[in-house]
Design a protein that fits this description.
By secondary structure, the protein is α/β, with parallel strands linked by helices. The chain folds into two domains: about 240 residues, Glycogen Phosphorylase B (Rossmann fold, 3-Layer(aba) Sandwich), CATH 3.40.50; about 170 residues, Rossmann fold (3-Layer(aba) Sandwich), CATH 3.40.50. Helices cover about 40% and strands about 15% of the residues. The protein is built from 16 helices and 13 strands. The chain has a seven-stranded parallel β-sheet, with helices on both faces. The longest helix has 18 residues.
Amino acid sequence: MKALMFGWEFPPHILGGLGTASYGLTRGMAMQSDMEITFVMPKPRGDEDQSFLRILGANNTPVVWKSVSWEDVQEKIGKYMDTQLYYDLRNHIYADFSYYYTNSLGCIGFSGRYPQNLMEEINNYSIVAGVIARTLDFDIIHSHDWLTYPAGIHSKSVTGKPLVIHVHATDFDRSRGKVNPRVYAIEKDGMDHADHIITVSNLTRNTVIEKYGQDPRKVTTVHNAVEPLGTEIEAIKSNKGTKDKVVTFLGRITMQKGPEYFVEAAAKVLKKTDKVRFVMAGSGDMMNQMIRLAAQRKISDKFHFTGFMKGKQVYEVLKSSDAYVMPSVSEPFGISPLEAMQCGVPTIISKQSGCAEILDNAIKIDYWDIEAMADAMYSIITYPSMSEYLRVEGKAEVDRITWEKAGLKVRNIYDQILNG
């Protein structure tokens, strides 16, 4: 089985959970002896682990350029993509949709991140995807998240191979319901053209069916998992440098993640005990707002803002924590609670998260219920027997949630599609 995958990021250079999930799933699938994966991304850095898959960079793929009229573009892509979306992007489309792969021609540049001209990069990525798809031998196309759906559609259109899209999140999650119409158009276009849709939770599956009008028979949930801890990570010891208990929030500081509820709950805990400190590890557009909120609640001396963390840094923070909290307003899945529990950290998660569907040994609260969140934090840091139970049972539970099992579920979907 040969899969052509399109993704946007891959460890060690990641900005969120998408890269972590892409790595875990591909590694789990590669445990199948007959599975060959080619993973395409906009701009690999060269230090990605390619021991179990092949990585191609769109930035290293030459294309033929040819000036064409807007009418030509509409004729060539209108039946595959949302026409209004491409009308919005018409000033960025200069390439004919019949390409030829040759080393004598130029490449398109990519930032490898999420730049201001993201829509332009998404479009350029889909152009290069067509070039790559024409040159490779594969059985199925697999696109991870909305940024790569146009690439998957274009590859399907030029090869006739079936397309699976993997919904790691929707704009309903990222925006708290204030959906960007251009993003929604890309998401729906991908879902409409996909032969099958994989969602990371039943929560996301319901959104795909109800908000995007997809046939339930076409949508399957494959829950995320967690990578086993390597010896280097296992060797990390707690280094919190204080006798106070430490409660940690780790993730993007954006409205989707509910950081304000964490700060408000922290203020309530500090009214009961001053033997606790709070860590907000991450970065995002609400970071300054959270710093001000902590100041307004007069708890700044008990709050630490670390900025963005990745790799080994994440585990250093987790292993120095006495409790982990994910108060997400709408979380398609949420891998970080699994990572925390894997490190033996008692964990609190919102009921509005996909991982709540598979975790039994985490405390579940509504994201908006700061009283319940504060009570859960206080209980964990106050009652040793409760903390120990969650620590031991939580770790045992997540150790059974593996990417190999998730990979077998994806393979089953591939087989069903290819066997008609």
